[in-house]
Write a structure and sequence with these properties.
Elements lengths: L1 E6 L2 E6 L3 E5 L8 E4 L2 E5 L3 E3 L8 E11 L3 E7 L4 E7 L2 E11 L1
Length: 102
Amino acid sequence: MYAIIATGGKQYKVSEGDIIKVEKLGAEAGETVVFDQVLAVNNGELKVGAPTVDSAKVTATVVEEGRNRKVIVYKYKRKTGYHKKNGHRQAFTKVKIESITA
């Protein structure tokens, strides 16, 4: 059984027991999070929502919050002496999928 959920502007295909990194949710480690934007559920037959599947939920537990590796952003224009170096670390929440109800 799997489901496709939407959170943080992205879509994820999840099954029970999966551990995924999503955009920061602002929840403490050990808390339970419910994703109610379920776009599709497959439990033998595929149910596709328009836009979401009614009465479908995915329950997950927060494992940890953190920040990803630094991404270097380097801007450069030739012949003018312009260059600018900047870094960015995106915050994430790691969650473990506990149950999928459809």
